[in-house]
Amino acid sequence: MIPGLENAEFVRYGVMHRNTFINAPEQLDSSLQLVSDKALSLCAPIFVAGQLGGTEGYCEAIRSGLHAAFSVISKLKGTGFVPIPTDTVFGALIAHATSDETENYQPMHVNFGILPPLDNPIRNKRDRYEAYRKRGNDALESYCAELIRQGILEGACHDV
Quick check: pTM over 0.85? Predict the structure, then answer.
């Protein structure tokens, strides 16, 4: 039906792509810097973000790029790296992706399953998710305030 493809052989119908990524738990620290980078004493640190670093999904890949950028800025300014709290969904994703305890690593999206449990378990799903949201928002506000204090971020916390 498509001119020029009359002799084409299709291996499979539908979407076909290769999901290429590094073994982040072995290769990256929580700032998304290559661990081997430190051991090799390269002239410039190497940071990995996006799907290659194990953050599956458009928003997750974008946020991992921002995370790597904050890491680079903190390195250039000589301030300490500010880890994103694991009470945020992205912080929980980074913790999962860079933890030595993660086995059979595969990239993933943010999800409630990787968040640390609430101090007081809540059975009602809507209330539980609201508690996760509030805890994550409070943690994100503190994180942003620390980024601003160290001169890594300029502007309001809601911009992150």
Answer: no
